[in-house]
Specification:
185 residues; alpha+beta; two-stranded antiparallel ribbon
Length: 185
């Protein structure tokens, strides 16, 4: 039973800085906009994972665990930011959300500013997630009229340990513990 206040203070650069407003690309043929909690819930109900693209110090002032739990509950499985607030980054990991930092934040972040209403990010395109390699590739596709017109492979950096990667793959630290206990019995 989570509150419906997920990211409501977030300003959306793709929508000229509007607060608590995001594009809902699955509501119909023409993208519509709505509040972040409402759009996130519609994605969850449709079984479509989503992610957050963020600026510097993502999660500042969001040290409580629900700030990471709510997005995960609503289907967010990744946050790509220029940088993270340390405690919030740890809470994201515990909740099974993959926190990634742009390897070239001043270059790659701006890919998302170019015609952002046409941008589709493929979360299936994460390549190379392991504790021995701190970088991964994320595939970003720009779509116009339903067709991919441009593809970028963005290098991102992670600080995930082997245990934390297990949390991500299980959906959270608690999910992993529960599955380990179930397997032991």
């Amino acid at each position: 039973n989570l509150a419906r206040n997920t990211l409501i203070g977030a300003a959306n650069a793709a929508l000229e800085g509007q607060v608590n407003t995001v594009r809902n690309a699955i509501s119909g043929l023409e993208p519509s906009v709505g509040s972040i909690p409402d759009v996130a819930m519609s994605y969850k109900q449709a079984g479509v994972p989503w992610l957050v693209i963020a600026d510097y110090n993502y999660g500042e002032g969001s040290a409580r665990e629900h700030a990471a739990m709510q997005p995960r509950f609503l289907g967010c499985n990744m946050v790509i930011a220029r940088s993270f607030a340390r405690i919030h980054e740890t809470n994201l990991k515990k909740q099974g959300v993959l926190p990634l930092v742009f390897a070239r934040p001043d270059e790659d972040y701006f890919i998302f500013a170019k015609d952002p209403h046409e941008l589709v990010v493929s979360t299936h395109g994460v390549v190379g997630l392991n504790e021995n390699t701190p970088t991964v590739q994320v595939t970003v596709e720009r779509v116009q009229n339903g067709k991919v017109v441009e593809t970028h492979n963005i290098e991102c950096v992670h600080t995930m340990s082997a245990d934390q990667i297990g949390w991500f793959k299980a959906g959270s630290a608690l999910n992993l513990i529960a599955s380990q206990q179930k397997a032991a019995h």
